[in-house]
Amino acid sequence: MPQYCIGVDIGTTSTKAIVFNKDGQVISKSSREYPIYSNRPSFREQNPDEILDAVKHTIKECIEKSMLRPEEISFVSFSSMMHSLIAVDKDGIPLTGCIIWADNRSVAYTEEFKANGRGIEIYKRTGTPTHPMSPLYKIMWLRDNEPYIFNKAHKFISIKEYVFLKFFNEFVVDYSIASATGMFNIFELKWDKEALKAAGIDTEKLSKPVPTTYSMTGLKKDLCSELGLTENTPFILGASDGCLANLGSNAIKSGVAAATIGTSGAVRVAFDRPVTDSRGRVFCYVLTENKYIVGGPINNGGIIYRWFRDNFGEMEVKRAEEMGVDSYTLLNEYINNTEPGSHGLIFLPFLAGERAPYWNANLRGAFLGISDAHKKSHFTRAIIEGICYDMNDVFEAVKNLVGNVELVYADGGFTRSEEWVHILCDIMDTKVIVHKNYESPCLGAVMLGMLSTGEIGKLEDCSFMFKDFKAYEVRQENREIYKKLFKVYRQAVDGMMPVFEMLSSLQNNV
Length: 510
Fold this sequence. Notes:
By secondary structure, the chain is an alpha+beta fold. It folds into 2 domains: 4-248, ATPase, nucleotide binding domain (Nucleotidyltransferase, domain 5, 2-Layer Sandwich); 302-436 and 469-496, ATPase, nucleotide binding domain (Nucleotidyltransferase, domain 5, 2-Layer Sandwich). It is built from 17 helices and 23 strands. The strands form 7 sheets. Strands 17-18-16-15-21-22-23 form a 7-stranded mixed beta sheet, with helices on both faces. Strands 3-2-1-5-14-13 form a 6-stranded mixed beta sheet, sandwiched between helices. Strand 2 (14-21) and strand 3 (26-33) form a beta hairpin. Helix 1 crosses helix 6 and helix 13 (327-336) crosses helix 14. Belongs to the FGGY kinase family. InterPro entries: ATPase_NBD, Carb_kinase_FGGY, Carb_kinase_FGGY_CS, FGGY_C, FGGY_Carb_Kinase, FGGY_N. GO terms for molecular function: kinase activity; phosphotransferase activity, alcohol group as acceptor. One of its GO terms (biological process) is carbohydrate metabolic process.
């Protein structure tokens, strides 16, 4: 019986493929990066074929590194970024680039739908907040601004659908990716008629929705030899990266959340039924027919720390090169050696607008409370605290909807800094656990694949894969400081909203 499986994660900046054994241990891995193209200020696109090539390359390379025979691989299961959109013609040839979640070209449409109330009504059925990331509003933009492409389009699909189209010559979409389009009714598990009417399309323009455990065989022969697999190797459609990050972090039971901070960030909780928020603050996406992921993403995670390093850390970068260490190691020393609360300095971390819980692309960043007592170390720690305040803002909205959360599983690049994890723990006022496995979407995809192939009876049966971990307890003295500062943070965001709107308007017209 095959003892190995492959998890593939099609991310925003790279694709990863990992060979796991049935205990969840990594046997081999491969990754390949690809660029984001921005030929206009609000546009963010990628080349679908560059991503397709990355998927093929990483699968092939991780198999070669593992030195496994094709018959030793039980299945290949997929995770993928959400909210991507590609218009393709009847031959499956792209008419557009892969328009990704960070694309803001449709902001005018989301503002209109927020103002007229149609946005919140569509959200309540689909679980996708009213935001330019949503493919629903991207299709509206194409309809009105690129009518030739809109009319020629045979289908509007995501990047994962594009990969499976090229592998199997079929248009299928899993419930999870579909539930992030703004056009899929999560209560009925079918395309939403009113959302499609608003976009000006019908179901024929979209792929066939199927469960996340949906399995396909019959990989094209030329790809079998190229990848090192057989026509009989099952390919599991899988789910979105956010949902699978929860699964791959062991945050699948009630009362448990997953917190991810990488380039961006997110807080998510598994729930046994679909729920939506009357204020539209959080999303609700499908994992399986009886597991839904409720949460919210933030735009501004580790990307802000990198921005700070690149623009204000020239001295630390130079010194790190001389010492032969990572520049973040030196910046982290500032964080470790600065008092909690950064001497009353607060950072609003909205350099790229914000998604949850505000869903406002016009938010902007700011340092508040600056005095002559503040040094570079205070600014460094304030940035990390600001990102964590943002995460806690989402955490509070999630708890308002699903109830109390007693434990948070953390993953993402930020877990390499113990103090950053502890700051999040203190601000969230909740115990945090970090597993040694950093590849939660790929592992989550494999766990879903095991459910699909009948190797486990339910997702909770995979808890044996999580052995090595470190627990972080709330530091009570810091908790009290952060409770006060978080209140100031919330008041500052609300109070600065009109200012941010005016500044954003000025910036966009420069």
